[in-house]
What we know:
By secondary structure, the protein is mostly helical. The protein has helices spanning about 5-10, 15-35, 45-79. It is built from three helices and no strands. Helix 2 runs antiparallel to helix 3 (about 45-79).
Amino acid sequence: xxxxxxxxxxxxxxxxxxxxxxxxxxxxxxxxxxxxxxxxxxxxxxxxxxxxxxxxxxxxxxxxxxxxxxxxxxxxxxx
Length: 79
């Protein structure tokens, strides 16, 4: 993944990251099927797909944790 792609992912809202995650999961599934049939010649794409999916999952988790901690901080201030 190139630096521009990483920055683009970091700027995405959570809803778009969820869509990106679903598209990566579908692509990974399709590549696994093609690989099992013996027709996938670029097997390095399997590994790259797993890593891209892990990056998106990490960003999602970070954004959700940040939102959760911000909500908890606001709740703490309200008391």
